[in-house]
Backbone:
């Protein structure tokens, strides 16, 4: 297992580090938030990311992608986490692209994957419905209707759902869970933009007797395999983003406690803070291995990759949360102010923790997988 | 080495092990006497144990990566991995466990002179001499550099007086590698020397300390006018602290590694507590804690591999050995607490056939030392604060 980055990966990481710090920093997120930007992310930035090959990172070369795999995608996500970057990378380049790549017909792949890779089309995957991530509990239905299907249900926490040019909706058919391409402007689709606590965007989507053609069905009327691949990829990538966000919260906190003086000395000289910082350093190192292990397994087609991505999501949920909580506490009063960035990290990490299953969800999955 | 060469090496190794590893040495270790420590007075628990040691030593495979001239086989790290993998495949026991291999050997290879290497390393490799480590003292534990065991200069030798404590298996060891103070006129890190001497030298006495586990793996060791020849000084006089730190790094990596051959926690818990109608552990709170610990164990295992791979790729592990030691030992303690929680009343039995004389309870108690020996968890956190985070005043 490649737990140490190779030359290409180091180069990609360095490129991404410069790119996101320069073009999509925390400052950029503040601007989007304060100006109440309609899209919630910068479409020009997304085009640039596509030009860099980022939008097609997990798309095959025959469909216009660069096909560098999920390990590479994780390096990008980590840098986005460091900068709290708002972009449709997760929704479009990871979740939607994986569903299409895994389950799509040749026609569907030829139509949509190049548009994702070029940055032309933003997609959102409507999966979850209730207050918690629960892919086994999807109630949205797709009934046969003429040559096509009729969709009914309510979706929640659809990342970038308000800005998507195209939706992918998960719904139950007679054969199992399936994915459908749905035009957000179609009759019966109602989309409510929900600005989240972290100033990133999500949507609630109601589907009321939405009629779609037969070719809206992505691949087969049972797409469980694609669902699992999408979940694994999504979890691994969100874990990588958490690693970036948690790592940056930690880095800036250590910097802060070296500067902040009380009782005539830097507060970072107090052992009470030193030991907690060193503990957090250790946890973040362990967490990094979890992300690397999960994403390399995914790229290698390891049959346990699903498990590892779930475990990584669990570990990163806990560790990034600890980094956020300790970060805010160690910043003291200024940690409560909007002026300091640490509060934004606290909020972003809270959202990422919840996305695609929190730590407890994945601990439960681990136990179920091992029959205990 | 090309892939083909490595494949050949693997195939040859497999055949050799099949032919040479006695059947009795392919069963899991169940008790203390199953571990071969070697040494002048070691009593082999079986002929197979003796034969296995002799065959492996003749092959240089008790210390596979050491140079052949010192009793090793000169294997690369990759070849060593293949060898260990093939041994694991047939469940072969380690032929020899010793502080000589684990701690002194690497230090001698790095800091010893040719004469010392030729004298001591082959005997370690063959399991002829068993070593112990004279580091901690009653007033020098976490603050190890405060050690006061005094070595008085007498020309071609020193006269050593003082006391060591927590000397692992000093009562069974043949020789000791020991930190002594040869100068106390400057800062505490200067003036420490790293010396070797025979435990049978007049004036050396080791007394076992009885622990909460009921066992006595550690000793108090006393030195009264012990004569140590100067040719037994490793490295430079007064500059032994560098060697001491190097050796501690090795020790920490070893302690952090913990015991990975254990049955998974969830199996132990399921056997003890049973599952409910939904096939879940009947104690839901314990179930959650076990799942969390197993995920941490997986991620920690990956971290050990990653740090090892990084250090092979030329990035120094440095203070990250403290991170591994800290995390690994704390995790091991957590695991044993969960095992005791799982075993419940059964885990409390101390003297019974059923409990193999309190195997679990004694193992649980033993883990309490993990986060103390080789530098406490708090010391490791200090080291991380100072050397990695570079926090002021750390």
Residues:
């Amino acid at each position: 297992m490649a737990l140490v980055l190779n030359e290409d990966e180091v180069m990609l990481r360095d490129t991404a580090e410069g790119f996101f710090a320069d073009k999509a920093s925390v400052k950029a997120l503040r601007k989007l938030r304060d100006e109440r930007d309609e899209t919630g992310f910068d479409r020009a930035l997304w085009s640039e990311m596509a030009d860099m090959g980022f939008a097609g990172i997990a798309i095959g070369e025959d469909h216009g992608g660069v096909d560098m795999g999920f390990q590479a995608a994780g390096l990008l996500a980590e840098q986005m986490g460091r900068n709290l970057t708002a972009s449709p990378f997760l929704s479009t380049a990871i979740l939607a692209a994986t569903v299409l790549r895994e389950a799509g017909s040749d026609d569907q792949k030829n139509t949509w994957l190049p548009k994702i890779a070029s940055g032309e089309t933003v997609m959102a995957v409507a999966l979850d419905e209730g207050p918690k991530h629960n892919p086994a509990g999807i109630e949205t239905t797709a009934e046969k209707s003429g040559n096509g299907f009729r969709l009914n249900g309510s979706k929640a926490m659809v990342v970038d759902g308000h800005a998507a040019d195209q939706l992918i909706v998960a719904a139950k058919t007679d054969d199992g869970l399936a994915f459908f391409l749905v035009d957000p402007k179609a009759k019966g689709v109602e989309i409510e933009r929900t600005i989240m606590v972290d100033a990133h965007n999500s949507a609630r989507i109601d589907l009321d007797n939405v009629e779609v053609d037969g070719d809206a069905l992505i691949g087969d009327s049972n797409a469980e395999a694609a669902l699992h691949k999408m979940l694994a990829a999504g979890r691994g990538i969100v874990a990588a983003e958490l690693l970036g966000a948690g790592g940056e919260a930690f880095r800036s906190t250590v910097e802060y406690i070296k500067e902040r003086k009380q009782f005539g000395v830097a507060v970072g000289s107090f052992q009470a803070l030193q030991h907690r910082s060193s503990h957090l350093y250790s946890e973040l190192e362990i967490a990094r291995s979890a992300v690397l292990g999960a994403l390399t397994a995914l790229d290698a087609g390891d049959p346990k990759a699903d498990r590892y991505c779930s475990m990584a999501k669990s570990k990163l949920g806990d560790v990034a949360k600890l980094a956020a909580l300790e970060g805010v506490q160690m910043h003291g009063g200024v940690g409560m102010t909007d002026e300091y960035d640490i509060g934004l990290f606290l909020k972003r990490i809270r959202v990422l923790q919840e996305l695609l299953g929190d730590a407890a969800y994945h601990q439960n999955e681990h136990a179920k997988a091992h029959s205990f | 080495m090309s892939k083909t060469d490595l494949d050949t090496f693997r195939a040859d190794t497999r055949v050799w092990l099949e032919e040479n590893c006695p059947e009795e040495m392919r069963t899991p270790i169940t008790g203390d006497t199953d571990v071969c420590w070697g040494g002048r007075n070691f009593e082999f628990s079986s002929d197979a144990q003796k034969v296995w040691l002799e065959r492996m030593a003749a092959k240089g495979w008790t210390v596979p990566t050491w140079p052949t001239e010192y009793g090793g086989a000169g294997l690369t790290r990759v070849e060593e991995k293949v060898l260990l993998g093939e041994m694991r495949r047939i469940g072969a026991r380690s032929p020899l466990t010793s502080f000589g291999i684990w701690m002194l050997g690497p230090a001698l290879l790095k800091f010893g002179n040719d004469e010392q290497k030729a004298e001591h390393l082959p005997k370690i490799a063959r399991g002829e001499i068993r070593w112990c480590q004279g580091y901690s003292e009653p007033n020098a534990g976490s603050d190890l550099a405060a050690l006061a065991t005094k070595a008085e200069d007498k020309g071609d030798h020193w006269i050593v007086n003082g006391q060591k404590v927590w000397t692992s298996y000093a009562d069974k060891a043949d020789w000791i590698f020991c930190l002594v103070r040869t100068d106390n006129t400057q800062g505490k890190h200067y003036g420490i020397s790293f010396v070797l001497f025979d435990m049978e030298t007049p004036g050396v006495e080791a007394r076992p300390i009885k622990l909460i586990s009921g066992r006595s793996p550690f000793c108090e060791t006393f030195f009264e006018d012990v004569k140590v020849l100067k040719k037994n000084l490793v490295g430079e006089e007064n500059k032994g602290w560098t060697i001491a730190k190097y050796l501690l790094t090795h020790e920490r990596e070893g302690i952090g590694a913990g015991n990975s051959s254990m049955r998974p926690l969830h199996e132990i818990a399921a056997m003890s507590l049973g599952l409910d109608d939904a096939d879940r552990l009947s104690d839901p709170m314990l179930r959650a804690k076990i799942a969390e610990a197993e995920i941490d164990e997986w991620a920690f295992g990956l971290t050990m591999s990653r740090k090892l791979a990084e250090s092979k790729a030329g990035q120094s592990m440095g203070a990250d050995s403290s991170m591994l030691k800290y995390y690994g030992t704390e995790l091991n303690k957590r695991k044993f607490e969960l095992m005791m929680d799982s075993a419940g009343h059964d885990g409390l039995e101390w003297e019974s056939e059923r409990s193999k004389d309190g195997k679990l309870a004694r193992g649980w108690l033993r883990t309490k030392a993990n986060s103390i020996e080789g530098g406490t968890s708090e010391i490791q956190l200090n080291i991380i604060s100072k050397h990695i985070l570079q926090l002021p005043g750390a």
